[in-house]
Specification:
The chain is 29% helix and 20% strand. By secondary structure, the chain is an alpha+beta fold. It folds into 3 domains: 129 residues, Dipeptide-binding Protein, domain 1 (Alpha-Beta Complex), CATH 3.90.76; 108 residues, 3-Layer(aba) Sandwich (D-Maltodextrin-Binding Protein, domain 2); 215 residues, Dipeptide-binding Protein, Domain 3 (Dipeptide-binding Protein, domain 3). Helix 15 packs antiparallel against helix 16. The longest helix has 17 residues. The radius of gyration is 23 Å and the shape is globular.
Length: 538
């Protein structure tokens, strides 16, 4: 193999040094062991339908759970946020403006076409050109072009040094079949939803039948290189749609389903651990729950109002009562404790103090009426399919009332909630993100103008400059300091009210084994390797 000079930074060094330079990585080990492929059907519960089948568009968990089984990622993730091989075998930088991926040579699309570097280059170039809404496009700010130089090697050209791009694009982006998606005028508007034509995919299972509001049925793919024996162990996979998580749990207990895709409500964890026929498995939380205050609102654009709101929330009660102690504080910082090298212990969680909140508002010129209420009223949106957020949203409302602020709760079905979020149709957004793994990328998406998840609509020149500096800083020690400074700006200006990072738990039937837990609710036990490795207990 031709020698290649690598620019190894603190961010990419682990991945580059741990992987073979000349051969595909061995499939990750799983508890499937020597189990043989059978004729069984694995049934998984979910609470929402798929919005679209184009993995290049959108951020919905349900969409990801389905499309991740169909379209591979270049990289996967470990519990500490570091990246690991999936379709890619090696990745990194030849120089500050040139990156690369080497990919496996044993993936095949379900129509029999080999998956090659040409598919990877096509996917990246198309996302950059067509700008589909979603996280993938958000990773490609400094991406210029991709070129397949062989069937297994892709060269990436950057407009300026970006020490996060190769890993983050590799992790967040699904690779799609060029022979299908190239026929569309734009990958940003391609629905990829023609059941009569079928779906061409390269995951462990092939989607065969959709009954909206009821189920999504898959058949086993002919080959899946990442699982032992290169063949998924269950012949069929079915996602069943239920109205809420409590109905899902009843279905699991009755044997109607074999696993639940979404994380368990904290109040149910202890009970299910003691339930015969049910097993509970933990997964590292790499995300956080938060509230953002829409600064396009005249009042929320004022720091004093955001500070008052931040001091009207009883964070400790939320973690103890709603989360049953299954959550940790981040110090109101977007840099979570799990990212140990970046975590800044000097940032303290916003203090719950409604009386102090009232003083802040009075000092800012707001006058309370005889009942102690200020002329401030905000609409908070949340998803009804998210029972944890639905519970703490009520506590947020009650705390704000003690500070003389009126909050009206608006819970909607998840798809309506996502649509409202995308349009900025809210005063306060309450929700969570499953994976916030790379500080530079996360802040680029969340706090830069035009960022895909900049729900506060912040545009702070000092913060923008720090994030830009972080993108081009390759020395890890220097990058950590830059991002900690950026996090302090977010914290002090209440550009994002980070509530907690949750410890996650997932449930499945004791009649099944072989699940491979990965961090976050986005991957959990329904990641491709896990569902391909799961099998009935003999």
């Amino acid at each position: 193999m031709k020698a290649r000079k690598l620019l190894i930074t603190g961010v990419v060094a682990v991945g580059l040094l741990a992987l073979s330079a000349c051969a595909p990585s061995a499939p990750p080990s799983s508890s499937a062991g020597t189990a043989k492929a059978g004729n069984g059907t694995l049934t998984i519960a979910t609470t929402t339908d798929v919005v679209n089948y184009n993995p290049l568009v959108g951020n919905s968990r349900s969409d990801n759970w389905i499309t991740n089984l169909m379209y591979p990622h270049l990289l996967t993730i470990a519990d500490d946020g570091s990246k690991r091989a999936e379709l890619a075998t090696k990745w990194g930088y030849d120089n500050p403006l040139q990156g690369f991926y080497d990919i496996r040579d044993d993936y095949t699309w379900s129509d029999g076409t080999p998956l090659t570097a040409d598919d990877v280059a096509f996917t990246l170039n198309s996302v950059k050109k067509d700008k589909p809404a979603g996280t993938f496009y958000g990773q490609l700010t400094n991406f210029v072009s991709a070129k397949a130089t062989s069937k297994t090697h892709v060269e990436i050209t950057l407009s300026k040094p970006d020490s996060s791009l190769i890993q983050e694009a590799g992790f967040w982006g699904n690779i799609v079949p060029k022979q299908v998606f190239s026929k569309a005028p734009s990958v940003a508007t391609f629905s990829n939803n023609d059941p009569a034509a079928g779906w061409v995919s390269a995951g462990p299972y092939v989607l065969k039948k959709v009954q909206v509001g009821q189920s999504y049925t898959f058949d086993r793919a002919a080959s899946y290189p990442l699982v032992a024996g290169k063949k998924p162990l269950s012949a069929h996979l079915v996602y069943r749609v239920f109205p809420d998580v409590n109905t899902e749990i009843l279905a699991l207990q009755s044997g109607e389903v074999d696993a639940i895709a979404n994380a368990l409500p904290p109040a149910q964890v202890a009970t299910l651990k003691d339930t015969n026929g049910v097993k509970v498995i933990g997964a590292t939380g790499l995300g956080y729950a938060h509230m953002t205050y829409n600064m396009k609102n005249q009042d929320l654009g004022k720091l004093a109002v955001r500070q008052a709101l931040s001091q009207s929330v009883d964070y400790d009660a939320i973690r103890k009562v709603v989360l049953q102690g299954q959550a940790d504080s981040t110090g109101s910082s977007p840099l979570m404790p799990v990212l140990a090298s970046y975590y800044d212990k000097s940032l303290n969680e916003y203090k719950y103090d409604p009386a102090a909140a009232k003083k802040i508002l009075a000092k800012a010129g707001y006058t309370a009426d005889a009942s102690g209420n200020f002329p401030l009223s905000f609409r908070l949106i949340y998803s009804l399919q998210d029972p944890v957020t639905a519970q703490w949203a009520t506590l947020v409302k009650d705390g704000a009332a003690k500070a003389g602020i009126t909050i009206t709760l608006q819970g909607t079905d998840r798809n309506t909630y996502l649509a409202m979020t995308a349009k900025g149709d809210f005063d306060i957004y309450a929700g969570n993100f499953a994976i916030m793994d790379d500080p530079v990328t996360n802040m680029t998406l969340a706090y830069l103008p035009g960022g895909a998840i900049n729900y506060t609509y912040v545009n702070d020149p000092d913060l923008n400059a720090l994030i830009a500096k972080g993108q081009t800083t390759t020395n890890e020690k220097d990058k950590i300091k830059v991002m900690q400074d950026a996090a302090k700006i977010v914290h002090d200006n209440v550009y994002d009210n980070i509530m907690y990072t949750q410890n996650l738990f997932f449930a499945y039937s004791s009649k099944w084994t072989g699940f491979v837990s990965k961090p976050s609710e986005l991957l959990s036990i329904v990641n491709p390797l896990s569902v391909a490795s799961a099998h009935e207990v003999k």
